[in-house]
TrEMBL record:
It comes from the Eukaryota. Gene3D superfamilies: 1.20.1280.50, Kelch-type beta propeller. It comes from Effrenium voratum. Residues 53-63 have a biased composition (Low complexity). InterPro entries: F-box-like_dom_sf, Kelch-typ_b-propeller. This is F-box domain-containing protein.
Amino acid sequence: MCVSFIVDFFQKVLQVSCNRIRGPPEIADQGQDEKDMPSRRRTDTSTTAGSISSAPSGLLPKPGPSLTELNDEVLLHILSLLPGWMAWRVEQTGHAWRRALHSGNAYWQSRCLHEFAARLGPSDLARRKYRQLLGVREVRRGVWCYCSRRHGLGDRVAAPQLFVGPRGQKLFSYGGWTDRGPQTDLHSVPVHAVSESSMREEPWRFQRAEESGMTATRGGVQTLTPLWFGEEGPSETHISETAQSLRRLTAARELHPGGALVLAFGGGGGGYRHEHNSWAVGYLHEGEGQENAQILWGKPQACKDLVGEAPQPYQPVERCAHSATYVPARFTMCPEGCVVVFGGHTGHCATSLASFDVLSLHDWSWSHAAAAECTALQAQDWEMPPRHGHSTTLFEVDGKGYLVVVGGGRGNILENWNVRDFADIAVLCLESWTWIGHYQLQSSGNLTPGRHHTACRALGQLLLVGGGRRPSRQVCVLDAEQVIRRALRGDVQGLVPLRTVPDRLEDDGADLPVPVARKMHGAACLAPYAPLLVIFGGWETGPHFSDLWTFALGADTEDLKDFRAAEAEEEREEPGQESLVGVRMMGPDGQVRVMRVPSELLAQFLRQGVVRRADDLGED
């Protein structure tokens, strides 16, 4: 939409409004006209054009004021009725608009809140923040602006879980698989440190959280679900009661008030076999600034009607590489919300699943959910294929909740037979518990978000990275809200575009570092707190990765001007340590273990043929 059209539209709305207020024009009275609306400056309106100038002087219509004559308060009121992107464009048309918008920090704060659900602090530059958020929602460009291997986490695979805290203070990393096996540790770093390092290359490190209580059984590809959606979550009373229950069970010390809840569930052992259904709830205190985060783990007591002589409560299916998504109360029948667990594999990775288990938060009880119907898709003879290594993300459209399931596949990611990666997207309506759409992803480069990709919600979009037997390094964007609206219109099958986000490095042809393709990594989008995507760890076909990257998001190069391209970091070991390489090795019992071998010794083994690369054997 061109700027001139927007200005003309404003002017016509103003004239119609003035005429409705004043009534039909009878006598031209210029002096009274100028009193009807607040005026910035008086102009000479004695000269009019065309038929108006030739009309009888006593029958001239009242022309109405020009937009340039209105004061800042009235201009901001007009703009408050329109999206912020219109205001951004109109701002370029003249001094009056520019002055009103630059002085209206409250206007930009309201736009951030209503359009992006971003509640800003009094010190935030709201106009700049709106531009950043608009760039994330309309992302067209990006740049890799930070890379580090000295972040304090080491190398990790098996999907370490990255997420932003409930108040946007910290970026957290949970679990993953190291050379010591699967982990349940929690680390954090302030979000502002991540954001600042992306502009000034200032290094930072994760800090281990203070942990207590009983964690879930360790497992690879274990999910960690934050129990909040935006500013929604269980009630403060329920969170407090759950925290006190965990404290009584674990004899923990006094807890900080104002915390939030997380859920760890499932996972598998070596070779992604030996799946389990262990779970634990964590009471998380995020902490301010450099204050250390704290978490108390445990399993809350079930409601009273599940104890005593009541029958044994239902236990969820043993799963690994599943998805576990928090759904707030207003989208479900559960008073405090629930966690929907879908898919995964079981039976030592022999069977992929398409079933649901649901954890009701109000009484912490599990139930088996019936298979979702697919009424709208029955004519196409479709049913949801079993899968693992997929992603499931909650979106809200017109006040209703929908789960968007992307990709995944079947077959052990460590093997090369009877495997398949899916390049599809399915939409589940929570209100009717019905699959309402199923589509194939269409991309220019045959990109497939197969098993063990990452998907991050970013202001109505999904940012997808990696996954599959032959992963891509590209950041891809899927307009999930538009896919949902398409399904609601009754167009239930077909193709949907999956586009890549070009980075400045490729466009400029600069020889600067970029991350390699990967799967089983971790990722988190920091929006609305910062226009950044963070990816970490994973692997492709060999050793585990230890690199962490941040990717700045924007609609154009103007949005990226504050971010500098990352420079190659020299790979250095900690002082006094020998250069080591992680190597996956499978024993006769089928267990996969990671051994740290000196790089010089590994090179010697390769030269002598003692060991061979996996790709030399035709394996993944």
